[in-house]
Amino acid sequence: MDTNGFYHKIKTGTQVYGTCVTVCNPQWPAMLNKAGLDFVFLDTEHIPLDRSQLAYLCHGYRALGIAPIVRIATADETLAGQAVDAGAQGVIAPYLEKEEQIDSLVYALKYRPLKGVLLEQYRMRPDTLPDSLKTYLAAYNSGNVAIANIESVPALNNLERLLAVKGLDAVFIGPHDLSVSMGLPEEYDHPDFEKAVAHIIRLCRSNGISVGIHFSLEPDRQVKWGQQGANIIMHSSDVALFSQRLASDMKHIRSMLGDTQHAGEPDSISAII
Amino acid sequence: MDTNGFYHKIKTGTQVYGTCVTVCNPQWPAMLNKAGLDFVFLDTEHIPLDRSQLAYLCHGYRALGIAPIVRIATADETLAGQAVDAGAQGVIAPYLEKEEQIDSLVYALKYRPLKGVLLEQYRMRPDTLPDSLKTYLAAYNSGNVAIANIESVPALNNLERLLAVKGLDAVFIGPHDLSVSMGLPEEYDHPDFEKAVAHIIRLCRSNGISVGIHFSLEPDRQVKWGQQGANIIMHSSDVALFSQRLASDMKHIRSMLGDTQHAGEPDSISAII
Amino acid sequence: MDTNGFYHKIKTGTQVYGTCVTVCNPQWPAMLNKAGLDFVFLDTEHIPLDRSQLAYLCHGYRALGIAPIVRIATADETLAGQAVDAGAQGVIAPYLEKEEQIDSLVYALKYRPLKGVLLEQYRMRPDTLPDSLKTYLAAYNSGNVAIANIESVPALNNLERLLAVKGLDAVFIGPHDLSVSMGLPEEYDHPDFEKAVAHIIRLCRSNGISVGIHFSLEPDRQVKWGQQGANIIMHSSDVALFSQRLASDMKHIRSMLGDTQHAGEPDSISAII
Amino acid sequence: MDTNGFYHKIKTGTQVYGTCVTVCNPQWPAMLNKAGLDFVFLDTEHIPLDRSQLAYLCHGYRALGIAPIVRIATADETLAGQAVDAGAQGVIAPYLEKEEQIDSLVYALKYRPLKGVLLEQYRMRPDTLPDSLKTYLAAYNSGNVAIANIESVPALNNLERLLAVKGLDAVFIGPHDLSVSMGLPEEYDHPDFEKAVAHIIRLCRSNGISVGIHFSLEPDRQVKWGQQGANIIMHSSDVALFSQRLASDMKHIRSMLGDTQHAGEPDSISAII
Amino acid sequence: MDTNGFYHKIKTGTQVYGTCVTVCNPQWPAMLNKAGLDFVFLDTEHIPLDRSQLAYLCHGYRALGIAPIVRIATADETLAGQAVDAGAQGVIAPYLEKEEQIDSLVYALKYRPLKGVLLEQYRMRPDTLPDSLKTYLAAYNSGNVAIANIESVPALNNLERLLAVKGLDAVFIGPHDLSVSMGLPEEYDHPDFEKAVAHIIRLCRSNGISVGIHFSLEPDRQVKWGQQGANIIMHSSDVALFSQRLASDMKHIRSMLGDTQHAGEPDSISAII
Amino acid sequence: MDTNGFYHKIKTGTQVYGTCVTVCNPQWPAMLNKAGLDFVFLDTEHIPLDRSQLAYLCHGYRALGIAPIVRIATADETLAGQAVDAGAQGVIAPYLEKEEQIDSLVYALKYRPLKGVLLEQYRMRPDTLPDSLKTYLAAYNSGNVAIANIESVPALNNLERLLAVKGLDAVFIGPHDLSVSMGLPEEYDHPDFEKAVAHIIRLCRSNGISVGIHFSLEPDRQVKWGQQGANIIMHSSDVALFSQRLASDMKHIRSMLGDTQHAGEPDSISAII
Q1: Domain span at F235
Q2: Boundaries of each HpcH/HpaI aldolase/citrate lyase domain copy (chains A, B, C, D, E, F) (predicted)?
């Protein structure tokens, strides 16, 4: 099921806006809806969300026309299927570096409920899949979006082949992991890092793949990447936006009131997701 | 039990800083701790928190030295006792207008576990309470903070008598309810509203009562009230800070990218709490 | 906020359809949406729902355009306000027998956030409420539906006066309580019981009040009452529909397979709600 | 419904054994079942249990033949009804001191679903209740146990009249509240306290009322009170038994290993419940 | 531990009745108990149940003598062990096609807590397992039921060898997956599909293996398969029975009241499980 | 982050005390804090804890200076990372028998967020890891404790090589699994079992590895093992301590009161964990 044309937007490279939601709270969805989001990013890799919470989140946001995009903990077909069963429209597999990984993700999302020996056969020989079954599976899985997390040097080096895998819809760049993998941990202003990101964005778009980068600090980064061609604007998270605003407001109030005692600042939250 | 000297600060009129927390999330407390808060405001009047969630919140923040202040749903001795059992250090009763209401709150918080007929007797004739019992009850309830929500014209008119009730520790001004009660709904810049707030602050402080005002918009309001004498800085809430920051960041990004489609803005959140 | 025109339908006596939902499950709302419901009835009087669950239910159904109608545990202004804060569009107070009870419910739902001394004054002297405040409160509470549970002989005897209370929008008849109050426990086919129900329906509609009856057995009862004029079709509950269908299917299968061992049948569920 | 003959045992003064359960954990019930308990005491006055947790606890223990006895937060008919709806077999109202309070509890538990004006009439004039309705209500509420918490000097002074209220089944003595009310806080060995407890036990039993005392320290107290006539053995709680055993085992291990650093000891837990 | 003789019934091919439960609700178990069920099917492959919910469900149904049968997400020894730790009596592994998969399931369920290198050795050379250990493990794991989901053409083709694996107790046929694998998606009336099911039933029973088919539409399918020899009657689910009954009742009421506006119908739910 | 010097104590072989916590309850942490614990053992292998519960537990105990040590369900890098994301300070992988397993655990805990191809390269050729990255990863993962569960004969036979793996910090002995693997199920007094435990303790300590054994019966076992050199005192669990104390107290009370009916006793709980 395509929520509010999200799949269509991804396939046509239309600009879409979202944030990472880490909190399962009954008031959150209506509130995010007011900010005019196209999707929410739900990260089961790093955020300790339960399966039932994930299902509440997916169903709650879908009901409002906001597409739920779920990152699974590791590239695994069973996890991809569980995310869809919980209501995800898109699934992100983290740290993909090899073509087989992307192919597995695509098959897990777009050939459900086929599995096992037969799925392997169809994957090796797609032409052997009967047309009637092909039609059924396309309808059954319509709207599902397959997204690869590109966040390492090996993935960067192998990028053209990765993007060529049939069925891949979009790429999420993981800035923290990528910076560490490049030996430039958290140096998001380093020219090599900036070059790498720009390269991924360009290559994705020229291959007809939607692309975005999830980042939890300055919104102007999203502007810059958007100007470079990123059409998925994945800006920050509830936890980062709240804690950054709280810290800066409190600092301002204390300083205006002449109270200089506390100088706490939240960590860079980008490290979390 | 006094968390991090909070009771002492309230009694001495020391500046304390807090925010309203509406989310029961395992990562929240450590994050707020970094912002250097003295207390959190947990509102069971308007926010649908379960009793077990309230207990997690109270114990979680206490463990970090942040005093949990709980607003009960209505002025009721049983609810006040349940808040303390859940781990609250302070209890706020909403919409207090009469001296008996404040007196009841004080007795519910500072004479536990006395109840019923005998408590009524001691309340009428405090001198009949045996010294040994007085000592026991003082130790048993040490650190408990009694806070009155002042948020209506009748309360305003009766303020001197309300502040004179023995045992009252602090006042929270409720701006939304007060503005409606004054016939100036949400007109927080109206001179009459500003005058009323300034009056409450002044009267509280001159009576040795700590005072603050919970407000969810501009931090500069807290600065102004702090300069007028409010020593409890109760700035905004997680839900307001997050949604305001998300909306403004998204607006900025969209506008910089030339995307003018969405103009959504979160409601004034002050209406909620 | 009016969900999908529900308030308008209630005020115009349009037919609306709903069921009682007792289960807080992420998959339920989308499923009920397919059955084309206008509202769900959420009963916090008898069903042990937590406040956070109630908020999930209210927000989840609202997002799909299904109005959440919440029965509070007893006629109490604080509970009515908490239901609205949790996301309820309509509030049912149980076992109402007196005009003041209905008036209190109306004021609790339609004059928020006014409370206390001033609300009492405006309730006694509605003409003293300033026009600007009236307008604000009407907008602030727009869409809220006040529903009285009529389920006893004293209420029946006092019905005309109860229905005359300004602001009452609808009546829910409670068949189990009413039958017990009439000394005809669970005798839903007794002519006196049928006459009483028909009388309430007729009187409500002739006073411009929407009316329905929540009943958990045969759907043909709803047809009959609908033909008598009930425009709120409040048919059964998830727990009743499931258990009735399970029991009848299992009985059928066992009997067809020649297995006569088990003859269990679910209790009349009407007793529960 | 009578769970495992619990109601019969209470009415005949048979010895019954139980503990206070504060934890809603899937493994607890089967474990307690092995200890051969007749009932569990679930305290919603002091323990922050949610309504859904209470329902899990009640249904879970009932399924194993262990009667769930629920203490409500305060003497209130709505709370008593909610406890029964959640699955409680017995309901304890705290701090009862007056005959009307006991009578209200009895009517709330044994005349459901009657309420309001008519219930008041039947309560004033029991002879006006029709026989057929009497029979229905007796069957509908069969097995429900009404228990009064006696825990203050005024209750002690009024005890004969309290025990004479028709329909009262049992008494729970609250040692902490009683000791405070007597001006002997936590002095459980004081001869006056011991005399008071012995007096309540004797008076209950001679009036055909079952009686017990919930206490969280030495099991030999239960032995002593059992020998004095208490037939309800309400020994300690999960939280007290665990923390006491952990503290004593840890102290033993540390001391045997020559590690004398830590001397922590859990508080008297009796204060909690 | 054998719940209510369930293991014995499976080993002797006795008729057993069950349904799929997707809802963790305190009132469900007692309600299902009235329908006379032998087991419940809890599906962690497709239904987003948390581990703690699974444990509540397993313990709750066991307490009532209803055996909990858990489908794990994928054939994996760790998941099988976790299901047993959560209280499952039987474990179903989905989409089994190879003998090693069935053998692994059997060893995971019947040789606990052996694992690792030694378990591999005993699995290769069962005769090397010491008799005393054999006896201990048999007692330790007594009652555990190993169930294979047969739901693909490769499994069908390999069926005789699969059924010959020592320790396999029962087979669940997965109709949706099987129909897709056969290239006949959801064509449950297709003669080839019917033939395949009948073949599996016959082959299982002639090999002393209990067999059933989980299906969520007409109960007469279960009758037909029961007559063909299926002794496990796994009829529908709570979610399917409720939504089907709600949709048909609402359609009936609307049509009788002349309201033809809504024609919604729930999807085939068989697709879900 | 090092909680209360726990990592330092583990590296220096200092005595540390802990228990296994199976219950996610808001009151537990403060209570355990009073018993002076250094760590809690949270077992996600056998105890059905949800991810969100695990995060509450980890953050709650950390806030009090008690280090949370989490056993993952099976040796798996993704699970190890999720435990750390949930707030674990130490991670125990169960049933380790091979050097690669220990090495994987170490890399999963101490080289985060590196993964995939590059991590494999650095693992094979540690000298190729740039110094700046090494420094970053050391700081990023500082305080993380890698613990191997040794609980089988193959592990015993391979122990010297296992302990030599660089980065391993501590060993937990699993008595139940070990006894079964040795063909001596639950024979904890068997001389061969005692010899094996003593051998592991000695070998660990002489290799600079901290060691403990989680056991749920007599505290004197911990004394004996402590005297043999075990510096991690992992004594019992909340569920075992509670049920043992409840059973013995109830037995005592019954016997003193001459009630000989019930002789239930909890199972050996050591089997559970």
Answers
A1: 3-241
A2: 31-242
Domain total in chain F: 1
In a domain, E54, yes or no: yes
DSSP state of F87: T
Inter-chain residue contact C114 with B180, CB threshold 8 Å: yes
Look at residue D266 and tell me if it is in a domain: no
* Interchain proximity A219–B249, CB inside 8 Å: yes
The domain that holds D134 is classified in CATH as 3.20.20.60
Cβ-nearest to C177 among D54, D113, D133? D113
CA-nearest residue to A116 within chain E is E95
| Contact flag A15-B267 (C-beta cutoff 8 Å) | no
For residue A267, tell me if it sits in a domain: no
Using the beta-carbon criterion (under 8 Å), do E223 and C37 form an inter-chain contact? Answer: no
From the list C78, C117, C133, the residue facing B183 with the nearest CB is C133
C-beta neighbour count of E251 within 10 angstroms:
17
Give SS3 for F201.
Answer: helix
Phi, psi values for residue F252, rounded to 5°:
-60, -50
Determine whether the interchain pair B27/F52 forms a contact, defined as Cβ–Cβ distance below 8 Å. no
The residue with tokens 């009895």 is D106
State the amino acid at position E119 in one-letter form: L
Q: How high is the mean pLDDT in each 10-residue block of chain C (273 residues)?
A: 90 97 92 91 97 97 96 98 98 98 98 97 96 97 98 98 98 98 98 98 98 95 98 96 94 92 52 46
| CB C3 within 8 Å of CB C89 | yes
SS (H, E, C) B149-204: EECCHHHHHCHHHHHCCCCCCEEEECHHHHHHHCCCCCCCCCHHHHHHHHHHHHHH
Q: D271: which DSSP letter?
A: G
Q: Tell if the CB–CB gap between A185 and F133 is shorter than 8 Å.
A: yes
C-alpha to C-alpha distance for F214 and C36, rounded to whole angstroms: 56
Query: Do A and D touch (≥3 CB pairs < 8 Å)?
Result: no
Which of C29, C52, C86 has its CB closest to that of A59?
C29
C113 and B74: CB-CB below 8 Å? no
Query: B-chain residues within 8 Å CB-CB of C50?
Result: 50
Q: Which residue has the higher pLDDT, B102 or E259?
A: B102
CA distance D92 to chain F (A): 23
Interface test with D, best of B1, B117, B129 (most D CBs within 10 A): B117
From D227's Cα to the closest Cα of chain F, the distance in A is 7
| Distance, CA of D111 to CA of D119 (rounded, Å) | 8
What is the spatial distance between Cα D80 and Cα D84, in angstroms, rounded to a whole number?
7
Per-residue pLDDT reduced to its tens digit, A92-120:
999 999 999 999 999 999 999 999 999 99
Its ipTM equals 0.94
Q: Which residues of E156-182 are buried (b: 16+ CB within 10 A; e: fewer)?
A: bebbeebbebeebbbbbbbbbbbbbbb
Which residue(s) pair with B43 in the sheet?
B71
Residue B272: inside a domain, yes or no?
no
Q: Which residues of D touch C (CB under 8 A)?
A: 50-52, 54-55, 78, 82, 85-86, 113-118, 130, 132-133, 136-137, 140
pLDDT in tens, chain E (273 residues): 788 899 999 999 999 999 999 999 998 898 888 889 999 999 999 999 999 999 999 999 999 999 999 999 999 999 999 999 999 999 999 999 999 999 999 999 999 999 999 999 999 999 999 999 999 999 999 999 999 999 999 999 999 999 999 999 999 999 999 999 999 999 999 999 999 999 999 999 999 999 999 999 999 999 999 999 999 999 999 999 999 999 999 999 999 999 876 655 544 444 444
